[in-house]
Specification:
424 residues, alpha+beta, Serine Threonine Protein Phosphatase 5, Tetratricopeptide repeat, Neuraminidase, four-stranded antiparallel beta sheet, 8 helices, 29% helix, globular
């Protein structure tokens, strides 16, 4: 008996130390997952949260993090619901970031659960979740209250838009432009002879370029080294003859618009547009008009209607971009407008928006330029071109045709392929 007591005394301290060491290792794994989450690398963060959730099944903060990861992974968004339901039922006001000791989920779980329901066409449940999240907001938080009211309204809009089915076809561009990676941001020149797009390679996002020849499109060339983008520049638009490519450079704190020129042999290193276009605020994607005289771009600079607004700048007599003008309240809303693209001689504008008559997330809208030079009320092309999920990037060729990156589960070549869209 005495020998057993001695062994127990000896073993217990070592057992406690092992538990402490395991917890320390788990905390490090949690911080690793949080790092990937901060970078929006949800697919990389997910395995860490999943492993920890198996060890700590009653940690509803881990359920929340797992659900948010699934919500941002194409083809797996339906898996977010169960985790976010657990998190929302066990959410609390007090919340401590960065600690594995945090066992309850934040109130934001209700918001993300609403998103998950909406994406998966469960609109009544989405409304309930958004309403529950709304009750956690301070009355003085008018901006977020308006945003949640809008989220509830778009769930109701979805039912209306889904009553009329838009007739269009999708044609995968094939293995010349698509591979096992994500292929996105397709843009084409007005003359139809130049095509550029992005591909997510192992260590960076690359810019590819192709020209139309007599036999068809040439093999796409990775022009990232010429442009010197370092993998953090993204294609916005091409000039009418394909000699200019406009790009967005995104960093942790800012986003600016750049341009690169083709001299007949190679692309120049991308240069930043002037201070009329780029500010200390967030300047996003830009579209140049077919005549090259105007540039429409997105910015969240002060003086707008809310979030990102669309602005237009005109070339001055010296060829520089002049002070921009806001496109006005018919186009811009209190939410975000982004990704402009012009067609039909510059008289038809396509862009994405969280506002207007929207059915969830970002929808694609189109607006026509009237005889007075004013952009008309944007129209939603309809369902299922737009869905309750995000539709962000659409490159029109004319009023009926265009290119779009799409994920089609079980089809195509990779995570996201480029498709040709034709409305009938």
């Amino acid at each position: 008996m005495k020998r057993f007591l001695i062994l127990l005394i000896i073993v217990l301290p070592f057992s406690g130390r092992a538990v402490a060491q395991n917890y320390q290792s788990d905390q490090e794994s949690y911080l690793e997952a949080e790092y990937f989450m901060m970078l929006e690398e949800y697919r990389d963060a997910l395995p860490y949260y999943q492993r920890l959730l198996r060890i700590y099944p009653d940690n509803y903060n881990l359920s929340y993090k797992t659900g948010v990861c699934y919500l941002h992974i194409r083809g797996e968004k339906n898996l977010a619901i169960d985790y976010l339901e657990d998190a929302a039922r066990n959410s609390a006001a007090s919340y401590r970031e960065g600690s594995l000791n945090q066992k309850t989920a934040p109130y934001e779980s209700w918001y993300y659960l609403g998103i998950a329901y909406r994406i998966n066409y469960q609109f009544e449940r989405a409304i309930y979740a958004f309403e529950r999240f709304g009750t956690t907001l301070m009355k003085s938080d008018t901006e977020n209250i308006l945003f949640i009211e809008h989220q509830i309204q778009v769930c109701r809009n979805a039912g209306e838009l889904m009553k009329d089915i838009v007739d269009f076809t999708e044609e995968n561009l094939g293995e010349l432009f698509n591979d096992s990676n994500s292929n996105f941001n397709p843009v084409i020149s007005t003359d139809g002879k130049s095509f550029a797009y992005m591909t997510s390679l192992k260590f960076y996002d690359a810019i590819f370029f192709s020209r139309k020849e007599r036999s068809g499109w040439s093999n796409p060339v990775n022009i990232t080294p010429d442009i010197q983008s370092d993998g953090n520049m993204y294609v916005s638009s091409l000039s009418s003859d394909g000699s200019l490519i406009f790009l967005t450079r995104i960093s942790d704190e800012n986003s600016d618009i750049f341009v690169s020129r083709f001299d007949g042999t190679r692309w120049s290193p991308a240069s930043k547009l002037n201070n009329n276009i780029n500010t200390r605020n967030w300047e996003s994607h830009a579209a140049i008009s077919p005549d090259g005289k105007s540039l429409i771009f997105a910015s969240d600079r002060p003086g707008g209607y809310g979030g990102l607004d669309l602005y237009v700048s005109f070339r001055d007599k010296d060829g520089e971009w002049g002070p921009p003008l806001n496109l006005g309240p018919d186009v811009n809303t209190q939410f975000n407008e982004d990704r402009p693209a012009l067609t039909s001689g510059g008289s038809l504008l396509f862009f994405c928006s969280q506002g207007h008559f929207n059915m969830g997330g970002y929808d694609i809208f189109k607006s026509k330029l009237d005889i007075n030079g004013q952009w008309g009320k944007p129209e939603n092309p309809g369902y299922p071109f737009n869905t309750p999920d995000d539709e962000v990037f659409y490159m029109p060729v004319d009023s009926n045709d265009g290119y779009m990156p799409l994920h089609r589960e079980g089809k195509g070549y990779g995570k996201e392929d480029i498709y040709f869209i034709k409305f009938h």
